[in-house]
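Collaborator request log, item 7. Partner lab (contact: R.S.) asked for a structural prediction of Large ribosomal subunit protein bL35 to inform their binding assays.
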Amino acid sequence: MPKLKTHSGSKKRFKVTASGRVKAQAAGKRHGMVKRTQKMKRNARGTMVLAAQDGVTIVKNFLRNA
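Returned to partner:
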C-alpha cells in the first residue's frame, strides 16, 4: 500500500493540539477592514479552536498523519 500524503496547503493553515483539537486562523481579515466592526476585528485576532466536527473533517481528509 502507498503512504498517505498530508495535504500541503492544510499543513500551513492548521495545527493539531495535544488533545487532538484543530487550531486555525479566523476568517475574513484579508481585506475590506473598513466595513468590519471593531468587535469583529478584535475577536478575529490570533487563532481559534475549530468546532469538534470541523476538526474531525480536517484531520480525516487533509491531516491524515496528525
